[in-house]
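Our consortium's second objective concerns turning raw sequence data into structural hypotheses that experimental partners can test. To show how far this objective has progressed, the report includes one record in full. It was chosen at random from the queue rather than selected for favorable results. The single chain below, 801 residues long, was entered without modification.
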Amino acid sequence: MNSIIELLKEYQLNIMFALSLICGMLAFFVFITKAIIPGRKYIILSLELCAMFLLISERMSYHYRGDTRQIGYYMVRISNFLVFGLILGIIFTFTLYLINVYINEGGMEKPPVRLKLSCIMCALGLVMLIISQFTGFYYTFDEQNCYQRSAGFPICYIIPLIILVLDMSVIIQHYKRISKHMRIPILLFSIVPLISSIIQLFTYGVSLTSMTLVGLVVLLYVFALLDMNYMIERANKHEIEVVREEQKNMHLLFEQTATALANAIDAKDKYTHGHSRRVAKYSVKVARSAGKNEKECEEIYFAALLHDVGKIGIKDSIINKEGKLTDEEYGAIKTHPVIGMQILSSISQSPYLSIGAHYHHERYDGHGYPAGLKGEDIPDIARIIAVADAYDAMTSKRSYRDPIPQQIVREEFVKGLGTQFDPNYGRIMLHLIDLDSEYIMRESEDASEGEAIGTLLCGPYRTTRSDGILLNNGIVHIHLTSYMSNERSEENIPSFVLFDSLDGRMHDSERKQRDLLYYEYATIHADGVVEQKGTRNAQVRTNETAGASAETKAMLRGEKIEFDIEAMRCKDHVLIRLMNCYRFHEIILALPDSTRFCYLALTGKNCIIEDVDVAKTGEKISESYIPRIAEEITYINLPQGDIPNVQVDGWRSDCSEGFEITNGTRISFHTMSLPTARLVWHCPFIVIYTSEDGQVNGKNYRELTVVRLDGEGWEEDDRAENRVHVNKLDDFTDWNSFKEKNKAGQDCELLIKIKSGQIGISTEYCGLSIHSITTVTDDIPKLYAALTGDQCAITNIRISR
């Protein structure tokens, strides 16, 4: 300790000089700073100036000590007086700083009494210092003009100590009221000078208290600056949040206004409820798949939402006419794009709105209206909306027809590529259709996902029924409440029909059953009775809880009975668990094949079904989850080649093992469409991909391209570009012949060439010459391929390199 004191004595004048310069610079910075609260600014400025003059005075007192000249006489007395006075000034200013903090940030209406008492003690200390100058109570000067302590010297330290103790007690009590950035320096300011003052009482010749106070003043400024920056940053963040919230509210208001306007448009046509919203959703799907950014997608969404705004100017009698329109009426309908453009063009900040309304009925071949634009002369937004608009028109109910099945819609898009539709956006819609295996993109998409079915008032058997709920290898939970209607009978129970159709709905008329390929598997009644119609086998297990008679009596009394159903499908087997408080039924059905869809619809007889809730949990089941009650239907029990055979029952529902490909790889196999196949794309596909383990959907899986052997191709990766060239050979007659050849079975060979970032796939298949080129923009160390498809069996797969 003594060595430290001696070291300070040796260098204290240099330390004082350096600290005084720092305080002077900080005072200048405080003076020119505008971000500090005005009252606090002057307090901090006073602190820095007091600290600077304290050290200058302390240094002057040491410099003139022992100087017997007249100037020394005055300088020693003036500088020592200023030292003691400025120490009190710094402590007083610090107390004022605390008062400012507690009032402005601490939420106090008035300062604590102890801080007021500190200010009084400072004034008392100054009075005592002045008295001391005339009485020598604190200190005196000898004949050599040297400073000497007097008997009352401890009091000049006790008064500042009392003030600091009072300040410290307030700081500790209200610690949380101080900004977290300022707590430590403020607490140090009240504690460290106490310690240094006590040490100062027992030492002489070193200005420990003065240097400590000045050091803490500098520290206080630094932390005050940090706190100020934090406050400014917080204020900026708050301002940004306010701006963002305002933008969000404005955006929400715009969206709600646009949606309300779209609803008003759709309300004019009783057959197009929700049309505008669906077109907007489909448009965004197409735009995202085309690589549009979020801003562009948002513009496309609102343009699509308001694309039919011009129908406001068309008579309701024309819009809702059920028969064929006259030429005059059709002419009136064709004016709605121009009316829409005129309405929306006044929104100058969003010019894209009027573009969507004006040009969404233009055709790619130039035969559209109102301007007859052709190809890429049609604005990009309008070409996207045209695709989405046509899709929703075909998949929604109209006065003159039911929704068109999605697979037929797909064929219409294929026919319209390059004529009605932009080929690029048309192909994207084809891809979205292919991915939509559960037919979610249709009129019922209006409601939220997992939409609850409305109340069913069932009279005669099966006259009222819900839309079908698609069953797959995920568990579907259905909850419902049923009770007897006014028609009392012993058959007033709900039933569940399992079926397949192109539109996912039940049909009774022979024409619709034929056109929509309606196929009924079975009907399961709520009492566990199963009526088989198109299944190969059925197994029912019933567990009686309260018994069938108790269930029947409850139904006849008209009591509400809650049913919980679990339904799932794995390949050609369906499992239904049906339970209520009386009985539990487990039904297993063996379907005729694995390729048709399986829908479950609710119906009944003389009952009311309400509170229906359908939840698809996403839980997946394994093949062994449903006990097999019939032999698996397979078309691949044939000799295999280099890798196992594969049967693909649905769109890419299975695929072969992956295998590495290099330049010159040849892949040969035999393929046959399954008996249920009826469409052109029910054929094999080849997938080119990369993954760390070489497996499809393996670690870091990246799909580069999918090439179908009907000639369509698709790149799945942003860093890959795919082009497919298809030529019809002499032996190609038509697509019906193509489908027949697929069903009969064909041998196929694919040749893969890889060079300079390009992957080429060539084959001749069923009268088509297909050549696909995929250009990859980055380096891929290993490439893999796998065979898949839709409703086809692929056997005898052989790979040669």
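The partners drew two points from this record. Residues 2-226 form a domain with the Rhopdopsin 7-helix transmembrane proteins fold (CATH 1.20.1070.10). Residues 445-451 have pLDDT under 50 and may be disordered. Both points have been shared with the crystallography group to help prioritize constructs.
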